[in-house]
Amino acid sequence: MNMSPDDIQVEDVDLGDLEHSLGFLLRIGQVQIFRAYFRHLGRFDLMPAELSILWVLHLNPDVKQGAVAQSLSIKAAHMTKLIQKLVTGGYVVRTVPEGDRRSVLLSLTDAGYAFVAENADVFINLHKLAPGHLDPDELTDLSRLLRKYIGYEGGAT
Amino acid sequence: MNMSPDDIQVEDVDLGDLEHSLGFLLRIGQVQIFRAYFRHLGRFDLMPAELSILWVLHLNPDVKQGAVAQSLSIKAAHMTKLIQKLVTGGYVVRTVPEGDRRSVLLSLTDAGYAFVAENADVFINLHKLAPGHLDPDELTDLSRLLRKYIGYEGGAT
DNA sequence: TATTGTTATACTCTATAACTATA
DNA sequence: TATAGTTATAGAGTATAACAATA
Fold first, then answer.
1. What is the nearest nucleotide to A77, using C1' and CA?
2. pTM metric for this prediction
3. Beta bridge partners of residue A109, listed in sequence order
């Protein structure tokens, strides 16, 4: 018979309305995007969250650590560990500003900027490389609906 | 001044095209759905993954453990722990079938069925209770696009 | 007193490999 | 030999609280 290990008897399992449940669909979508991430950017020792921090720093030099954490929905305690890794890796530098010596400002090293310049486009547009089954217009719609759903009423496109 | 701890200086952080990146939007969407889950169903000691297993079992009595795991993208090793917890909690029973004594069939106890009957609707339709900013038609579109994106070409609605 | 970031702990989920018992 | 499930371990992510330094 020689069935591939991927189609054992899955069709036998009825998911019912779970298949229409946003929570479930978001999770499966994320699993697939993660696979695409590791296929295209897995050779670096950086997780998606870390790459998104580098991206934000390249757009916002000398931004407060807490502001980055909050804008990316990363908890403060976790952020500390991520930044330590990025500093150790030579991508990020920390500065304590004169104005408020409790806080920490983050910015990219030259290596950090070079890394972003080289890999940001693949990272930001992973969904176009993923095995997605949507045409460009549908991708735009999906992105817009998701933005609206989560309350990023930002713009049109 | 009295700023709430939630709007520190977030508007100062420019996310650029990350805001249009599907990976990022899926993650933020999941964070929000999780919050809705714990608001509405957090009083039970069950995680979303566990509730989705109960849901699948109520639709597929005596289904193989591995088939459930695969249909929900749960790894086998993790599935073992989840099922142990659900058995301990009195929601699920395991049966070793005569035909293939390596495998395990899962089904719900009466308490499991009662739990699903009472809470499944809230679980499956969490996105309607979440602070979502979409009207019903947009929610349907979003669900359809996500299903198509992940390759669940199933049906129209 | 309140805020920024750090440390420490615990739990969920994922990934992997080694193991058992069956087939 | 291959398959179904288990056990064990490690890493990533999240949640929480206690803490130090600063405001």
1. C6
2. 0.90
3. none
